[in-house]
Amino acid sequence: MKKKSYYPSNVYLNGEIVRAEAAKISVFDRGFIFGDGVYEVMACIKGHFFYKQAHMDRLKRSMAAIGLQADVRVLEAAIPGLLQESGLKGKDCLLYIQVTRGMAPRQHSYPVGTRPTVMMYAWPKVLPDQNPNPVPVVLREDFRWSRCDIKMTSLLGNVMANQNAAEQGCYETIFERAGIITEASHSNVFFVKEGVVYTHPADHHILDGITRQVVLELCEKLEIDVHLQGIPAVDIFDMDEAFLTGTSTQITPINSIDGRELHTYQQGPVTQKLQQAFSGVKNSL
Amino acid sequence: MKKKSYYPSNVYLNGEIVRAEAAKISVFDRGFIFGDGVYEVMACIKGHFFYKQAHMDRLKRSMAAIGLQADVRVLEAAIPGLLQESGLKGKDCLLYIQVTRGMAPRQHSYPVGTRPTVMMYAWPKVLPDQNPNPVPVVLREDFRWSRCDIKMTSLLGNVMANQNAAEQGCYETIFERAGIITEASHSNVFFVKEGVVYTHPADHHILDGITRQVVLELCEKLEIDVHLQGIPAVDIFDMDEAFLTGTSTQITPINSIDGRELHTYQQGPVTQKLQQAFSGVKNSL
Lengths: 285, 285
What we know:
The structure is a homodimer. By secondary structure, chain A is α+β, with helices and mostly antiparallel strands.
């Protein structure tokens, strides 16, 4: 299940907006040598960024976690110009932001006084009002590090896991760590059983997705019970509903895991209720 | 304990040798976006690469592990020209080799038909005949992924661990996983107790260092007993000797862990014997 991707027209790179093909960095950038960086992806819907402050706050937390200092206000201020140059002003799009530690001769420990490399680009993307199609996923052991709460660019583990899914015609790989479902390679995982919503608590083993947070808020508003609790992998086929959340994934129902139908519902009532409420949040922007 | 590092004069990049400041890649290189690449570091001593074939074989294994295809013979053939251009022909130096999946619009799963980005550079480095000075290290939980056998560029975990050591004036962080010492952030760890050498087996939790392999061969030659067995973290202060191995670390004795003197020897007899034998191997090149 390969998703189509495109290059953007323009890239913001360290204060300048350049054509995508001219956006180049030194091979000595620590983002290239060590995966020493962090990132965010935000959706812009009808000219408004969805939960922008939450994304910016998380970017700051990711940077702080790896001792990287960059002025988030400067990059935030550059976003309107980038959208304008990219022909996306007022249009639906996704924005990618990446901050790496910058250029330095190779040594593992952080160099002193480097200028972080800040890169952003946006590309047109109209997200469906609600993601209608349930997707198949595969399950595998969570072999990634124990700081999945940091949204970093050292993503080879996630890349390998997502490739594993794609090769089996699936959208995602969901992970189990010590027998408990944590999250997926680029999305969070929720289950529903007898009207109660379950998802892994936001500890070091998952990325606390913004869409995950919105869904938890919506559960509260809709008076749906939530247990912040990872579901044992042995119990997943006993669940009534399951869905993924993420910035472009939004709320996407899961219909099978490792080729086995997950539940009796293709798109369960709680999932549908949350999708409708999520759509309402977007439309109220 | 910051090590001094320098930029090289020249860089080999996708078939061309350019000045270091002109060595640039696209921001869409998956090495920059995802840490989607592998690498090697080799020492050249008196004009000969130390265990070159072993490094090249490991590079091929790392690439295979992440489904990356590049012709290692092509890059190998380019090394003499790079050394010549860098003014390092016949000189002692270190060579860095990095292969990333190349440029593609961002999506986690592997894109089809990208051209890998191959980058190499060398810089002058005369390694001491034997590393004389014992170094202090710190100990922390191994929070990295479970495929440490792949020599990949998604190294943020190793970077953070090495930074942790540097901030405490130490050379390395050694890791414990589930109470067992695995390896260090960019080197392998050995212990000696009553004449027996202990090191973690080469499973998915360590990088099977070339110097580690040479030391194990030397143990066999010197009739030193080896147990391929990780030492419990609670037992490290009962060990007689401890040392690190690595391409530039060579064989370096450890004298303290977390500020506590490790053993009665600054540089134990088994460590010394191995250092002398290692020096002999280098001098026989």
